[in-house]
Design brief:
Distance between the termini of chain B: 55 Å
CATH superfamily of chain A: Jelly Rolls
CATH class of the largest domain in chain B: Mainly Alpha
Number of strands of chain A: 8
Shape of chain A: globular
CATH architecture of chain A: Sandwich
Strand content of chain B: 5-15%
Oligomer: heterodimer
CATH topology of the largest domain in chain B: ABC transporter transmembrane region fold
Largest sheet of chain B: 6 strands, mixed
Strand order of the largest sheet of chain B: 11-16-17-8-18-19
Helix content of chain B: 55-70%
Largest sheet of chain A: 4 strands, antiparallel
Number of helices of chain B: 35
CATH topology of chain A: Jelly Rolls
Number of domains of chain A: 1
Radius of gyration of chain B: 40 Å
Chain lengths: 148, 926
């Protein structure tokens, strides 16, 4: 797997869709490709957010701590982006992410990511667009729920 | 120091000067002879005057002085000589002339060497004396001394003085006598020509020095301006952080530019004047031959002077201007150097220096500092003359742990400095036991008192060097005096330099309480550990190099730890974390160049990009036909770099961290890439290829993932590795320390030696996992103290800048503890630390002084209760207070309102304030 295939994966991520290829290549080049074994945690709830991950291959579970123990809230597959909210909002991790099987991910360092956003407005706009559309979806869901 | 330079020179070099004098005087007859012979050769041998009246022989090697008529005439025969024929006389006289020329030349050579040696020795003495003066600057004078100025004085300003010293007495004597001899000779030949020459010489001597007086004033200005310039430059460099933080570069530039203009102005004035003087001097000197030819020729034609005499006079005259010119130069130099010397002496004025003590005096009153510390009617003033400490008597018994509670003014620090003997300008009396503090010798103070101020002073060197600095007060043991050392001692004696050698042993183990250097290291580590620096030193040790002489046996243990780490990783199924170095396998996580060399480069020619210029390295790549492929890889890398880093501004942190190329090289590489697409190889220059070749050397496939390093190519690189090794091993110094699983790589950091391979960075948390396993091995083999010892070798950098402020502060404190002083004074040394660490470090200090005394300035009374005794200030007066709140119902005696309120939160009064909204928050913030 080379830089080129990673760029292909990044392009599948909604947040990065609008970014031009050479920037995506820079994002990939400045990230690390790392391997998690089954059961290894990406990060735990409450940790400081230091990186976001794009899953290139494999699967991971998103778990929330609750009184009775952890429960699973989502499952992440290929090309999923995880941990980006933490590095954008500078808040601790809101959930734990654990690899279900051997998983290969691209680790995007927080500082590098923010550096790139500051440097290239086009990237920032792409990120904002994605965040705005998420907000819209949430609003729509809230509306639907309150209408019930 | 003597006020007059000449007296200073005479006092220290009398003997040498006199010897050279004697030789100069002894050489004069030879000089006179070499002047007189041309006349004889022309007159007697060539013109044949010696053979007049049909004589067939003439006397040779006779010596007579022909007195001119105005001295009564006639001649005085000194040596009879032998009778020879005409041709023999010519050759005899000519060879005699040659002989005298040689003798004169040799004497000149000898005198020059002696003068040079004399000057160098005197300069050495002068520099050393000035440095010794600098060591004696009083704390008060130090506030106004700029380090760069002192350095300029000792190094640069003394240089011309040293150059002059050799000439100071001998030059005028030698030149003066030479000129006088030549002049006398001319006078003897012809009175009128002699008087003419003397008149012009006189004019030169009167006019030129007058013109030069202005030059001296300018010279003095120049010296001061350049000294300040040097001081200013170093201030800006030292304060670079402030300059960058406030972006005041433009202001600093203007400031320096202004100074440079001022300097230029002075120097230009000097030049203008100097060359006018030179012009006049030359003019006068060249007027003389005109008179000689005209007047001398007239005399010769009218028969008052024979041709031989005229030739000799002109020859003698040729000898006259050079010494005169040099003599005038010497005079100029003398004034110049005297000015410089005066400036230098003024800088080290006695009132700025501490009193010298002779060796016996240094230990004056040397006995443990115990008994009653009595402070009576102490009164001090701040720098502006307002009173700081206004009196008050305090008496307490030492040894004890005493707090000085600050009232927010500088008084507490002032008292601390007085007790540490850092400040000696005070009224009143301070005694310890029955001794006046001011009466203690410097040696006693240095041994028995330690002072840790707010600014830790570290010297470049290792942490260990800095910690044991306080133990290096006197040489304990000399080194063996071999021939070289003997020579050094002889020279040192001649120049007033110290006989001690830095190579001798200086560390006073007795005072540290350790029995040997290993025990001393252990003691240092215990102190550092307790001061909370243990982990840092351990980390320094991991990245440090092992010194096999200092820690014999450690190499073997590290190699064993390496094997155990390997085994443990395998046992725990984590062997993937590290890819070990293997002679027969390509290490995927190491760079291409590491794989090629399979070792640590030790020679600079094999480090970094320089390696592509290494002929042997290139030859192997060529023979293995790797060069073209590597250049192709270079093109691929350069292409990717220019593609993805384009548009990123120069100096962006991402460049430094990720790019193979430097930000400012990006455009150049873009051009190279463009050229590489030209026809075949033709487009690339030799230089291009070299630069491209350097890129893939740093390439690691799993990290950079450009997909340009496949299995087949790795095999080829592996083949080249063997070839490379063979090539390097043929050389006297291979420049590479090859990896060997069973041997320590001395040039590699300790942790690299433990791991002996490259961490597989593509495994999540690989480093953390490895660190955990490594720590287990270290614990199992009990290696941590040995690793910490390696950490003591960590270089602190200039002024300790490679350490953090906290680390510097702790090194400073531990240095004070290592020499186990009777009295440790801590004044603001804990300022860089947060509240929690201050509490820990205070406890650490209280414990560490053991049975000795600690005096510590406290900015507030939070930790007051930890001390046995306390001194506070009441309206500027010293008062003894009770440090324990239980015994003192009203501890709030502080004069400052703020302090009092702040203290409320901690000393049991907080309950009363609980209801107030601000109180609990303030407490939390503290």
């Amino acid at each position: 797997m080379t830089l080129e295939t990673e760029v292909q994966s990044l392009r599948q991520v909604p947040m990065f869709r609008g970014i031009e290829p050479s920037r995506l290549k820079l994002l990939a080049f400045t990230s690390e490709r790392i391997r998690f074994t089954a059961g290894q945690t990406f990060f735990s709830q409450g940790d400081a957010a230091d990186a976001a991950y794009v899953i290139l291959d494999g699967r991971a579970d998103v778990l929330l701590d609750a009184a009775g123990g952890q429960f699973k809230v989502a499952e992440l597959g290929r090309n999923a982006l995880v941990g980006e909210m933490g590095i954008l909002s500078e808040t601790p991790r809101s959930a734990t992410v654990v690899a279900v099987e051997q998983t290969i991910a691209l680790r995007i360092d927080k500082r590098v990511f923010l550096d790139l956003l500051t440097q290239f407005p086009q990237m920032s706009i792409a990120v904002m667009r994605e965040l705005a559309s998420r907000l819209e979806r949430t609003n729509a869901q809230l509306l639907a729920r309150s209408g019930q | 120091m003597t006020k007059s330079l000449f007296r200073y020179i005479w006092r220290h070099s009398r003997r040498d000067q006199l010897i050279i004098f004697a030789v100069v005087l002894g050489s004069l007859p030879f000089f006179y002879m070499s002047l007189d012979l041309p006349r004889k050769i022309v007159n007697e041998a060539i013109q044949g005057r010696a053979f007049e009246d049909g004589r067939m022989t003439a006397p040779f090697l006779d010596f007579a002085i022909h007195w001119p008529s105005w001295l009564g005439g006639g001649e005085t025969q000194i040596v009879e000589g032998v009778q020879v024929g005409r041709l023999e006389l010519l050759f005899g006289l000519s060879f005699l002339f040659l002989f005298f020329v040689l003798v004169n030349g040799f004497i000149k050579y000898w005198i020059n060497v002696q003068k040079g040696a004399l000057g160098e020795r005197m300069m050495r003495r002068l520099r050393f004396e000035l440095f010794s003066y600098a060591l004696r600057f009083t704390p008060e004078a130090l506030r106004n001394v700029r380090s760069a100025e002192a350095a300029t004085i000792i190094k640069d300003e003394v240089e011309p003085i040293g150059g002059f010293i050799g000439d100071a007495y001998i030059q005028p004597l030698m030149l003066g006598t030479q000129a006088a001899t030549a002049l006398t000779f001319i006078l003897i030949q012809s009175l009128w020509l002699g008087l003419l020459a003397a008149a012009i010489v006189g004019a030169q001597f009167i006019i030129i020095p007058r013109l030069r007086r202005q030059l001296l004033v300018l010279g003095r200005q120049r010296q001061l301006a350049s000294r300040e310039f040097a001081g200013r430059v170093s201030e800006v460099i030292d304060g670079m952080e402030a300059v960058q933080v406030h972006d005041t570069a433009a202001w600093e530039r203007a400031e320096i530019g202004g100074r440079l203009h001022h300097l230029f102005d002075i120097r230009f004035k000097i030049y203008k004047r100097k060359f006018i003087v030179k012009f006049l001097n030359n003019l006068l000197a060249q007027m003389t031959p005109f008179f000689f030819y005209a007047v001398g020729g007239y005399f010769a034609l009218s028969g008052k002077l024979d041709i031989g005499q005229l030739v000799a006079v002109i020859a003698a005259y040729r000898e006259l201007p050079p010494p005169l010119k040099e003599l005038i130069d010497w005079d100029q130099q003398r004034l110049d150097v005297q000015v410089k010397y005066d400036q230098v002496v003024a800088y080290f004025a006695p009132e700025r220096l501490r009193v010298v003590e002779d060796a016996a005096d240094e230990d004056r009153g040397d006995a443990p500092l115990e008994g009653a510390l009595a402070i009576k009617a102490l009164a001090t003033f701040d720098g502006h003359g307002s009173p700081l400490i206004r009196g008050g008597d305090v008496s307490l018994d030492l040894p004890s742990r005493v707090a000085i509670l600050s009232d927010g003014t500088a008084a507490a620090s002032n008292l601390a400095r007085i007790l540490a003997r850092r400040d000696e300008s005070y009224g009143g009396e301070v005694t310890i036991g029955d001794r006046h503090l001011s009466a203690l010798g410097h040696g006693t103070v240095g041994r028995r008192i330690a002072y840790a101020g707010p600014e830790p002073i570290l010297f470049p060197g290792t942490i260990r060097d800095n910690l044991i600095y306080g133990l290096r007060q006197r040489q304990i043991e000399d080194i063996e005096a071999d021939e070289e050392e003997q020579r050094r001692i002889v020279e040192a004696k001649r120049t007033g330099n110290p006989l001690d050698s830095v190579a001798g042993s200086w560390i006073d183990l007795d005072r540290s309480g350790a029995k040997d250097h290993v025990a001393l290291d252990a003691a240092l580590l215990i102190l550092l550990d307790r001061a909370g620096l243990g982990d840092d030193v351990y980390r320094f040790g991991l990245t440090g190099l092992i010194d096999p002489e200092r820690q014999p046996g450690l190499a073997e243990r590290v190699v064993e730890a390496r094997h155990r780490l390997r085994e443990r990783l395998e046992r725990e199924g984590k062997s993937e974390l590290v890819e070990s170095f293997d002679q027969d396998a390509y290490n995927a996580h190491a760079t291409v160049v590491e794989n090629l060399l399979f070792g640590m480069p030790t020679s600079p020619a094999l480090k970094g990009r320089a390696i592509v210029e290494h002929a042997g390295f290139r030859a192997v790549l060529d023979q293995e036909k790797l060069t073209d492929d590597l250049v192709r890889m270079g093109v691929a890398i350069a292409e990717t770099m220019t593609d993805i880093f384009e548009g990123l501004p120069q100096g962006h942190p991402l460049f430094e961290q990720f790019a193979f190329v430097h930000a400012d090289e990006l455009d150049e590489f873009a051009a190279i890439v463009k050229r590489s697409h030209g026809k075949g190889r033709g487009g690339l220059t030799r230089d291009d290829r070299e630069r491209l070749l350097a890129l893939p050397l740093e390439y690691i496939e799993p990290r950079h993932r450009l997909g340009i390093l496949d299995e087949a190519f790795r095999e080829r690189l592996l083949q080249a590795r063997k070839h490379m090794r063979a090539m390097l091993e043929e050389r006297d110094d291979p420049g590479v320390e090859f990896y060997d699983p069973d041997r320590l790589t001395l040039a590699a950091p300790l942790q690299n030696n433990l791991i002996f391979g490259r961490v597989n960075a593509s495994i999540a948390d690989a480093r953390e996992q490895l660190r955990a396993v490594g720590a287990e091995v270290v614990a199992e083999m009990d290696l941590s103290s040995e690793i910490e010892r390696v950490g003591l070798d960590h270089a602190v950098g200039p002024a300790g800048r490679r350490l953090t402020a906290h680390q510097r502060a702790i090194v400073n404190l531990v240095r004070c503890l290592v020499k186990r002083p009777d009295l440790l004074v801590v004044d603001g040394a804990l300022a860089p630390f947060g509240e929690k660490r201050v509490a820990e470090l205070t406890d650490f200090l209280l414990e560490s002084v053991g049975t000795h005394s600690l005096v510590m300035v406290l900015p507030n009374d939070r930790h007051l209760a930890r001390f046995e005794k306390a001194i506070a200030f009441e309206d500027g007066h010293l008062v003894a207070i009770e440090p324990h709140p239980s015994a003192a119902p009203e501890p709030r005696e502080a004069p400052s309102e703020d302090d009092g309120e702040e203290r409320g939160g901690e000393d049991g009064l907080s309950e009363a304030k609980e209801g107030q909204p601000g109180a609990s928050r303030r407490q939390a913030a503290e």
